[in-house]
Design goal:
Blueprint: H1 2-43, H2 49-55, E1 66-70, E2 75-80, E3 83-90, E4 94-97, H3 103-107, H4 118-123, H5 137-150, E5 159-166, E6 169-175, E7 185-186, H6 191-204, H7 229-233, H8 250-257, H9 261-266, H10 282-294, H11 299-311, E8 320-321, E9 335-337, H12 339-350, E10 354-355, E11 358-359, H13 365-369, E12 385-386, E13 400-404, E14 408-413, E15 418-424, H14 435-446
Antiparallel strand pairs: 1-2, 2-3, 3-4, 5-6, 5-15, 7-9, 8-9, 10-11, 12-13, 13-14, 14-15
Length: 448
């Protein structure tokens, strides 16, 4: 009997120790998520900290963090149990989660503001030609839908911003309380589609061959050396990856524990032959952004290319593309721009990669983007999602879209010449937006 009791006691102690070790491994993710997202919401989006804690951070263990916002130093420190994380805001860079350094050391890096050309951006293009909301039959049809969606939550979710373009003109624009047309909001995975545009521009400039094996040093000694940008863009790299947002998954470790997110992702082993197996991976986009950065002589040159060749022609004034500790823009997740900025981006794809009469992306690049990845079941192209499999049954199958965590979307409808932008906090499964019904009603309202 004593032996049995000793055995039970040992098992009990080991279970407690194992639980503590596991919880300890989760703490940097819990506090890191809270600090990073609260800091960006406050210092980039200009939202009230209390509102962010009550909505965006009110789930799982995240809701139990104790958060301190220092408005003078522009930092957020989040604590839970015996762990704490700090995120720092820097002008131009946005927010970075501190890993292995201090805020003062991080601030020694200054953003090269001369990469911006505000004059060029503010000149705009045909994208600012807008139909005033309410001055058209279609706008009048959409007004009650916008109100029902944003103010009354008739389609569920918690939207912050809602914009509809038809033929390049604004026919609906609506914002939640505390949000307006100047508020820069988080893209989450919609940023992946901006990586698609950057790659397209570099292909047009003969800087990249998406079908050639990538010269990544860490891959040269094994089967990973065959991976191409095309494989990465179609989420068919074959690299091992866990995108589960619960617990200690690869994506959570990458975003909250790694100084160099792209290096973490590219260090994963090969599980499948490149180009044969579809698996959604935020790590792939950070590999891509790290690789694109390496093709330029300096970080400043890369930033200048990105801002002057993509953002400025779109009329996107000083977006925030946050970086990891290594200095690579987090293409998987962390782009901040206004709802109208995201709408202009969608319109560029609707216009076959052109802005007005100026071609930005290569001819046929949009067609390539919309081509189904071989193993995706007609649901994914190249850093864009597709509706060819009828995922949204009541909208056209030619629709393709940028999709971000918690309900960030740019829907593009070639057959209707419509772009729909939705931003907010609408997590699955409890508060997900009824996109099928909403998009169906929008298209019915925009049809003649």
């Amino acid at each position: 009997m004593k032996r049995l009791l000793r055995y039970v006691a040992v098992v009990f102690i080991l279970a407690i120790l194992g639980g503590c070790i596991y919880i300890n491994s989760l703490l940097p993710i819990i506090t890191g998520y809270a600090a990073k997202n609260l800091a960006s919401a406050v210092f980039v989006s200009g939202r009230e900290a209390e509102d962010v804690e009550a909505l965006d951070l009110n789930f799982s263990f995240i809701r139990f963090t104790s958060n301190t916002v220092d408005y003078e130093k522009k930092t957020v420190t989040s604590r839970f149990l015996w762990n704490k994380s700090t995120a720092v805001y820097r002008e131009g860079y946005g927010v970075t989660l501190l890993i292995g350094t201090t805020a003062d050391e991080l601030r020694l890096q200054r953003f090269p503001f001369d990469v911006f050309d505000d004059t060029l951006a503010e000149q705009d293009s045909s994208f600012r030609t807008q139909l005033p909301v309410g001055d058209s039959v279609i706008a009048k049809r959409l007004a009650p839908i916008a109100k029902a969606f944003v103010s009354e939550r008739a389609y569920h979710g918690h939207p912050f911003a809602f914009v509809v373009l038809q033929k390049g003109s604004v026919v609906a624009e609506c914002y939640d309380k505390g949000i307006d047309s100047d508020t820069k909001l988080l893209s989450w995975s919609m940023a992946k589609s901006f990586a698609n545009a950057l790659i397209g521009m570099m292909v047009k400039d003969s800087l990249l061959d998406i079908h050639a094996p990538m010269d990544i040093p860490e891959w040269q000694g094994d089967g990973r050396k065959a991976i191409t940008l095309h494989d990465l863009m179609q989420m068919q790299s074959g690299l091992a990856w866990n995108e589960d947002y619960g617990a200690r998954s690869d994506v959570n470790i990458m975003l909250h524990c790694e100084r160099d997110m792209g290096l973490f992702a590219l260090s994963k082993p090969l599980e499948y032959a490149p180009g044969t197996h579809w698996q959604y991976s935020s790590g792939t986009t950070n590999i891509v952004m790290r690789y694109l950065r390496s093709r330029f002589t300096s970080d400043e040159a890369f930033l200048r290319y990105m801002h002057l060749r993509l953002f400025a022609p779109l009329g996107i004034v000083r977006p925030i593309f946050e970086q990891d500790m290594s200095g690579t823009s987090v293409g998987s997740s962390y782009l901040y721009a206004t709802a109208m900025d995201f709408a202009r981006f969608g319109q560029m794809y609707l216009d076959d990669g052109c802005i007005g009469n100026k071609r930005i992306l290569p001819a046929e690049w949009v067609d390539y983007t919309r081509k189904s990845a071989s193993d995706s079941g007609d649901h994914y192209g190249a850093f864009f999602w597709l509706n060819r499999n009828g995922h949204f049954p009541d909208v056209p199958k030619d629709m393709y879209y940028c999709d971000g965590h918690d309900g960030q979307d740019i829907f593009i409808f070639p057959s209707h010449q419509v772009v729909v932008v939705i931003l907010g906090f609408s997590p699955k499964p409890d508060n997900v937006i009824d996109f099928n019904a909403l998009l169906r009603d929008i298209l019915n309202a925009t049809s003649s």
